[in-house]
Structure formats: C-alpha cells, structure tokens
C-alpha cells in the first residue's frame, strides 16, 4: 500500500522484484488486497481507485501541484533554441513553459487561448492561434477547422501536457482534445511531454498514442519501476527536474 500510495499502480512483476516473492504468492496477495475497498485489481496487478476520471477545470488544475509544474515548465523552456518553431497544446504545465520562454525569434502554434495570451506579451515570439470551437472549461480550441489549420504547419518541437501516462501510452479525458493532440504529434520533429507525477498510472477515456510517440518526458518525480521500464523500451528520455528526485 505504501508503494501504491506513491506510484498509483503496481504490477505482479514489480511485487515479485520488490519483495522477493514468487509470482504465485504475489497473485494470492493481490487477490486478497482486491477484496478490500482500498485497491482495484487490474490485468496483471493493482491500482488505487479513482484514477480514471479527470474532473478538475483548467483554472483549478493550474494551481494543483503548481511548484512542480513550474519547474517542469522552466526546464522545457530551456530546451528551446533561438529561431525554433513550436507547437504548444492546452495544458497547465505547458502554460508554465510559455511563461518561462526566453529564446528569441521563436514561432509558436497553439490551440491554447491562455498560452496565446501569455506569449502575446513577449516581443520575440510570433504566435499562430489555431481556430475552432472553444471548450470554455478546459480552455482549448478544437474541431475540424482546428485540424485543417494545424495541417499547414510543421515544427521543431511539440510541448504536450499529459493527463494520464501508463505503460500503455498517453490518454486524455476528452476525445475532441485528444484528436488535436494526436495530429500535433504528427506535425513535430520532437515530442516533449510535460507531466508532473500525479499523471503517472492514470488511464483516461481517450488514448492518443503509445509511449514511443514521445521523445522526452519532463517530470518532477521518477516513474515507478514498471513505467520506467516501459519508457526505456520505448526509447523515451526521462528528465526529472531539480528537487524532484525521490
């Protein structure tokens, strides 16, 4: 339970490795734990309940775990070189990257109205706002016109926020947002995912990609053993921000 409280999910293989028990013993213990109300049994392990829903609005998410998100955003912004072309999605963590951006002569394409507003105050940034229908609660633009305009661009880097990261890939609560994010991935040479540790182990309604769609993951805490293993197999570079190592 201590491991689950920190990492949200655990597999049978990890239980065997951490506690030096056989797979049969681990399976029996998983069954016993799943009979309580504390955990949910999954295919091959356990997870904490209540991980599959995203209920917070954009403004509330902006202030949750804000210190970690700020450091993640600063680290991401430092990866941008002068003259680069970027796509920024509508994510609270990516918003911190927009605030921290100091590179000169940068061109940004975004469907995030808050990021566009922040970047409009920076003299050395040219902003292209994707059109479309506005999701007022979560502050992103989406729809056919968004995808049509996005198809005209190709960029050096995509900064992508994440709502859920598991061994199976990246997932989001809203399909209309996920469709746009999937298209963004196709139009970027490098995909940089910005996600604090609370996104680890979450599996949400709409999966947009496998882990191998990512090039870099910037986070504030080291992933669990099984997630790190999956990231390594997918060739994803994991950057843990200063002060975030456990």
TrEMBL record:
Name of the featured protein: DeoR family transcriptional regulator
Domain HTH deoR-type: 1-48
Top-level taxon of the source organism: Bacteria
A Pfam family the protein falls into: DeoRC
GO molecular function: DNA-binding transcription factor activity
SMART domains: DeoRC, HTH_DEOR
Keyword annotations of the record: Transcription, Transcription regulation
Transcription among keywords: yes
Keyword Ubl conjugation appears in the UniProt entry: no
């Amino acid at each position: 339970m201590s491991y689950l409280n920190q990492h949200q999910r655990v597999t049978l293989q990890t239980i065997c490795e951490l506690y030096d028990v056989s797979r049969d013993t681990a399976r029996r213990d998983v069954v016993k734990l799943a009979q309580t109300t504390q955990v949910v049994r999954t295919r091959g392990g356990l997870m904490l309940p209540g991980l599959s829903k995203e209920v917070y609005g954009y403004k509330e998410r902006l202030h949750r775990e804000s210190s970690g998100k700020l450091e993640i955003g600063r680290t991401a912004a430092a990866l941008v070189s002068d003259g680069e072309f970027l796509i920024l999605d509508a994510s609270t963590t990516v918003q911190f990257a927009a605030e921290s951006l100091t590179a000169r002569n940068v061109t940004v394409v975004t469907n995030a109205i808050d990021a566009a507003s922040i970047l409009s105050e920076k003299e050395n940034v040219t902003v292209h706002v994707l059109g479309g229908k506005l999701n007022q609660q979560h502050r992103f633009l989406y729809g056919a016109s968004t995808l049509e305009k996005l198809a005209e661009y190709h960029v050096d880097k995509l900064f992508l926020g994440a709502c859920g990261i598991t061994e199976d890939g990246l997932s989001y609560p809203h399909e209309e947002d996920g469709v746009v994010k999937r298209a963004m991935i196709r139009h970027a040479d490098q995909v940089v995912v910005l996600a604090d540790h609370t996104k680890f182990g979450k599996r949400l309604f709409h999966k947009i990609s496998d882990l191998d769609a990512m090039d870099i993951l910037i986070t504030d805490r080291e992933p669990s053993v099984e997630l790190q293993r999956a990231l390594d197999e997918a060739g994803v570079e994991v950057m843990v921000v200063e002060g975030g190592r456990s």
